[in-house]
Design a protein that fits this description.
- With about 290 residues, the protein is of the alpha+beta class.
- It has 2 domains: about 5-90 and about 270-285, Alpha-Beta Plaits (2-Layer Sandwich), CATH 3.30.70; about 90-140 and about 180-265, Pseudouridine synthase.
- The chain is built from 6 helices and 14 strands.
- The chain has helices at about 35-50, 80-85, 120-130, 155-165, 240-250, 275-285, and strands spanning about 5, 25-30, 55-60, 65-75, 90-100, 100, 115, 135-140, 145-150, 150, 180-195, 230-235, 255-265, 270.
- Strands 1, 2, 3, 4, 5, 8, 11, 12, 13 and 14 form a 10-stranded mixed beta sheet that branches.
- A hairpin with a 7-residue loop joins β3 and β4.
- α1 (about 35-50) packs parallel to α6.
- The radius of gyration is 20 Å and the shape is elongated.
- It starts with a strand and ends in a 7-residue tail after the last helix.
- Residues about 200-205 have low confidence and may be disordered.
Length: about 290
């Protein structure tokens, strides 16, 4: 890979032509930012830095708004590498809360059903984790970009969710079974911690809230005595960790949803080497090495 990997403290020249293979910025995506938010921010700064009206800027692997962690942002010719970079294996720290489900399988939608969870213990989780290792078929969340007969799954999900909110019916989780299954491989499942989560917990290094994303809902689960585990997951491209949380709850005879998610690695790119959005802006908006 000949693209420049941007690191904290670097200084760029004022010409994109000095980077014929493009630039890759491993960014620690902030909480409640969409991946598109990050791209817009970086593109604006990159166009300004290189005095271009337009530049190709994209990312290699979307992260949900409530997830944080490694997002590879590609500038210039590096955008041609995005498809290859997306194929790399991923590593996550998944916070899973048991005893309830939500239509989105995470904290963006309200809890729709609660389940007994006295059987969900640290020992029970550790016993079932090995059964998730290896190649398997996974059903994606209904709130996803998958298609059913040309219709985006999230469009079906939103319709069902609106109906449930009006009291016409309960949210139909089984509708997700209409989605085609995806072949994935889980390479690692390791319990990191066990206990009860802080209701509004978020990764310490990613607590920046984008004021333009107040629309991103985060449910309040304070007052609910729900068991919680942090699990290290290694997996292949296309794995939905929200769906993995759902399946883990079902395997334990309960319900579960994703409380938090942090992508700690994608291929050889690690969270420890990633730049914050502010770090990236500092490099792109400072004077160039040519003194421009």
């Amino acid at each position: 890979m000949d693209a420049l990997i941007l690191k904290k403290g670097m200084t760029l020249t004022g010409s994109i032509e000095d980077y014929p293979e493009g630039i890759i910025i491993p960014i620690d995506k902030p909480y409640r930012w969409t991946s598109a938010d990050v791209i817009r921010k970086v593109k604006w700064a990159a166009c300004r830095h290189f005095s271009k009206k337009n530049l190709k800027v994209g990312h290699a692997g979307t992260l949900d708004p409530l997830a944080t962690g490694v997002l590879l942002v590609c500038i210039g010719k590096a955008t041609k590498l995005a498809e290859t970079l997306q194929k790399h294996d991923k590593e996550y720290v998944a916070g899973v809360t048991f005893g309830a489900t939500t239509p989105s399988y995470d904290r963006e939608k309200e809890i729709d059903q609660e389940y007994p969870c006295t059987q969900v213990t640290r020992e029970a989780i550790e016993a079932v984790l090995p059964s998730f290792l290896g190649e398997q078929e996974q059903v994606a969340p209904l709130f996803s970009a998958k298609s059913v007969d040309g219709v985006r799954a999230y469009e079906m999900a939103r319709k069902a969710y609106r109906a449930a909110q009006k009291g016409d019916s309960s949210f139909d989780h089984s509708a997700a079974e209409l989605l085609s299954k995806q072949n994935i491989t889980i390479t690692r499942m390791e319990m990191l911690s066990w206990g009860e989560p802080i209701a509004d917990a978020r990764p310490a290094a990613a607590d920046t809230v984008n004021r333009f994303n107040a629309r991103i809902n985060v449910i309040d689960i304070s007052g609910k005595d729900l068991p919680h585990a942090d699990i290290l997951v290694g997996c292949t491209k296309g794995t939905y960790i929200r769906a993995l949380a759902r399946d883990l709850g079902e395997a334990l005879g309960s319900g579960a949803f994703l409380h938090s998610l942090r992508r700690t690695g994608t291929g050889s790119f690690r969270i420890e080497e990633s730049l914050s959005v502010d770090d990236a802006m500092d490099i792109l908006l400072r004077p160039t090495s040519e003194g421009r």
